[in-house]
Design a protein that fits this description.
This protein is mainly alpha-helical. Helices cover 89% and strands 0% of the residues.
Amino acid sequence: MTTLIVRVQSLLALLRQSPQARVFVAALLSAVTWFAWAFWANRHDIDHAWISGLSQGCVSFITTSVGSTLLEFFYRRIGATLAGRIASVAMVSGCSLAFMVSVHTLAHTPNLLTTVLPVFAVVLLYCSSYVIGLQKIKNQYENNQVEVVSP
């Protein structure tokens, strides 16, 4: 049991320290989760369910990886202020919504709103919590730097 705890702690440390690890893990979890949702939301027609599920899984992987990377980038550039953090979330979530609607329109997803709206609600929560998490990491880093420097 203690080895499992140590492994989880080392994984969490890696996620705190590595933007690439954070982005990959988030994108993978997003793809699996939203593939399942889109498949279920369109389950009445199995052919459309697979197309919608695969479309949403791919869209989610792409938007989460690109969106998370953009959130990291924007946070470093404009995220120091509340307005900067809000702008980052708005830009990334808006692009994500536009991309999802475009892909599902091209895929002829029959239940477009049922498929996209729950995902978009989670995108807003994800982007907001991601930026809050980046702020916490920054604050923790700065506090550690202060503790090391002070006598």
